[in-house]
Write a sequence for this structure.
C-alpha cells in the first residue's frame, strides 16, 4: 500500500498554482453524456475520482481522450445506460449519472454509490428530485434503476440544500419537456460551475448561486470549458502553511469562494492577504483558539475544510469548540491526532479541543480523503517523523500532494509508485485512446 513519510517541522514557503476543482469536474463529467458533439475540458485534475469517471464514460460508449489536463469527450457514440457495478460502487458521484443518463437514454442502471466513509450518506434526496421530475426509480438486487419517458419539469423542492441532489436535479431538468423551478437549491460554487458548464452547452439557467434555480430546457451541444481552481485543495495548502509557521501564496482560485475559511485562518491569528485570483497566508507567532466554529452549507464554513482546521486548533494556545453539522463520522480524525499528542474530546458532533504546544510524529492512518489531508497537515507541523497509511484516499482528490508540498519546502516522500508517476500513467491510458 503506498504510504507517505513526513519529516515534520519544516516551514513552508513559496507559491503554488492550485489544481482544477474535484467537486466541480465530477458533476460535469456526469453531464458529459448529454451534449451532442465534442466537449473539451481543460485544467482537469489527474485524480482517482476523475479516473473512475472516465472509466464509467468509456463503458457507456463515450469517446475519451486525456492529455496534460485537457480532456476531450464525445457522447455521440453512447451505447449503454448501465454504469458498471464495480465502478459505480467506488465513488459517490457515480449517482449523478442517474439524472443525466435518464435524460439521454430514458433508462439507467447503476450501483448504490460508494465514496468516503464520513457518514451514512443517503441518496434519498437524489431519488426524490428525479421522482418529482417524473422518473420511476427502483432497486433490482444491488442495482439502482430508473426509467422515464421524458422528465416533465415543474417545481422541485429540496427540504435541505444537498449539493449532490441539486446537481442531480439540474442534470435531469436540462432534458425536461418544460421549465423546472428548483426550490431549496444548494448555493455551493460547484453548483454554479455546473450551471456555467450547462449554459456553455446551450442550456438556459437562471438563479444559480441562490436557493431558487430556474432551468429552461434547450438542445445541448459540446463546448470548451475550463475547470476552475479547487477551493478545498487551496485551503489545504493554506492550512499546511499555517501549521508550519509558513508563508505560502496559492494562485488560480477565486478568493471569494474561500471567504469563510479565510475568516477562520484570520481568527487563528494568521495574516491573510488576497488578490483577484490568489491568497497569501503568513503565520507569525502562536495560533489562537477559536471559541466556536461550526460547519454549514455555503457560504458558511465548509465541512470539507473542517479536518484541515482541526490540527491547527489542536496546536492553538487555549480551548476551541468545533461542531460538525453535516457528516456524523467526520470527527474521526481526532483519534489519530490524539495519537500524535493532541488533546481532543469528541462528544457526538462536538469536538472540544484543548490546545497543546506541539504534536509528535508517529504512524497514523487515513480513513477518508480530507481526513488524510488533515493528517498530512498535522505531520508537517509535528516534531519528528510521521508515517501515514491510506494514501489511496488522498489520491481520490489531490493531484500530486507530495510534489506540491516538497516544492514549498516540506520534507516528504511517498513509498511505492509516486503520485506523479501514477498520474502520468493514468493520463497515458487515455491519451488518444478514443475509447
Ligand atoms: C458534496 C461534496 C462533499 C462535501 C458536501 C457538502 C462532491 C463530490 N462532494 O457531497 O465534498 O462535503 O457536498 O458540502 O461534490 N443528504 C441526505 N440525503 C441525500 C443527500 C444528502 O440526507 O440524498 C445529507 C447528507 O447526509 C449530508 C447533507 O445532506 O448530511 C449534505 O450532503 P450533500 O450536500 O448532498 O453532500 P454531497 O453532495 O454528497
Amino acid at each position: 500500500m503506498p504510504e507517505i513519510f513526513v519529516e515534520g517541522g519544516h516551514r513552508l514557503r513559496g507559491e503554488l498554482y492550485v489544481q482544477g476543482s474535484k467537486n466541480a469536474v465530477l458533476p460535469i463529467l456526469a453531464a458529459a453524456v448529454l451534449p451532442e458533439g465534442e466537449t473539451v475540458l481543460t485544467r482537469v485534475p489527474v485524480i482517482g475520482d476523475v479516473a473512475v469517471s472516465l472509466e464509467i464514460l468509456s463503458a457507456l460508449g463515450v469517446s475519451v481522450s486525456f492529455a496534460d489536463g485537457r480532456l476531450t469527450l464525445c457522447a455521440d457514440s453512447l451505447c449503454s445506460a448501465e454504469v458498471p457495478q464495480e465502478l459505480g460502487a467506488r465513488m459517490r458521484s457515480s449517482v449523478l449519472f442517474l439524472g443525466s443518463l435518464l435524460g439521454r437514454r430514458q433508462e439507467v442502471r447503476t450501483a448504490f454509490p460508494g465514496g468516503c466513509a464520513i457518514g451514512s450518506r443517503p441518496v434519498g434526496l437524489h431519488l426524490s428530485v428525479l421522482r418529482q421530475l417524473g422518473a420511476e426509480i427502483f432497486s433490482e438486487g444491488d442495482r439502482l434503476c430508473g426509467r422515464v419517458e421524458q422528465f416533465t419539469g415543474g417545481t422541485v423542492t429540496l427540504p435541505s440544500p444537498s449539493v449532490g441532489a441539486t446537481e442531480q436535479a439540474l442534470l435531469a431538468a436540462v432534458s425536461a419537456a418544460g421549465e423546472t423551478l428548483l426550490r431549496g437549491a444548494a448555493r455551493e460554487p460547484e453548483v454554479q460551475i455546473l450551471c456555467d458548464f450547462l449554459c456553455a452547452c446551450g442550456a438556459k439557467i437562471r438563479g444559480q448561486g441562490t436557493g431558487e434555480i430556474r432551468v429552461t430546457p434547450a438542445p445541448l451541444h459540446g463546448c470548451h470549458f475550463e475547470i476552475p481552481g479547487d477551493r478545498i485543495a487551496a485551503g489545504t495548502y493554506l492550512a499546511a502553511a499555517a501549521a508550519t509557521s509558513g508563508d505560502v501564496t496559492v494562485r488560480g482560485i477565486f478568493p471569494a469562494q474561500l471567504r469563510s475559511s479565510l475568516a477562520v485562518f484570520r481568527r487563528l491569528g494568521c495574516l491573510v492577504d488576497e488578490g483577484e485570483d490568489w491568497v497569501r497566508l503568513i503565520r507569525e507567532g502562536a495560533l489562537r483558539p477559536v471559541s466556536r466554529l461550526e460547519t454549514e452549507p455555503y457560504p458558511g464554513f465548509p465541512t470539507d475544510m473542517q479536518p484541515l482546521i482541526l490540527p491547527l486548533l489542536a496546536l492553538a494556545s487555549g480551548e476551541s469548540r468545533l461542531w460538525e453539522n453535516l457528516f456524523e463520522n467526520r470527527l474521526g480524525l481526532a483519534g489519530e491526532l490524539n495519537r500524535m499528542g493532541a488533546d481532543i474530546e469528541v462528544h457526538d458532533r462536538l469536538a472540544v479541543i484543548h490546545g497543546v504546544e506541539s504534536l509528535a510524529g508517529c504512524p497514523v492512518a487515513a480513513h477518508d480523503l480530507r481526513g488524510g489531508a488533515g493528517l498530512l497537515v498535522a505531520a508537517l507541523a509535528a516534531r519528528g517523523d510521521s508515517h501515514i497509511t491510506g494514501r489511496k484516499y488522498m489520491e481520490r482528490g489531490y493531484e500530486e500532494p507530495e510534489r506540491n508540498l516538497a516544492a514549498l519546502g516540506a520534507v516528504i516522500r511517498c513509498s511505492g509508485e509516486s503520485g506523479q508517476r501514477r498520474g502520468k500513467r493514468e493520463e497515458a491510458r487515455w491519451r488518444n485512446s478514443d475509447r
Notes: Residues 23, 26, 92-93, 119, 121-126, 160, 162-165, 186, 188, 190, 302-304, 326-327 surround uridine-diphosphate-N-acetylglucosamine (CB under 6 Å). The CA atoms of residues 42 and 70 lie 4 Å apart.
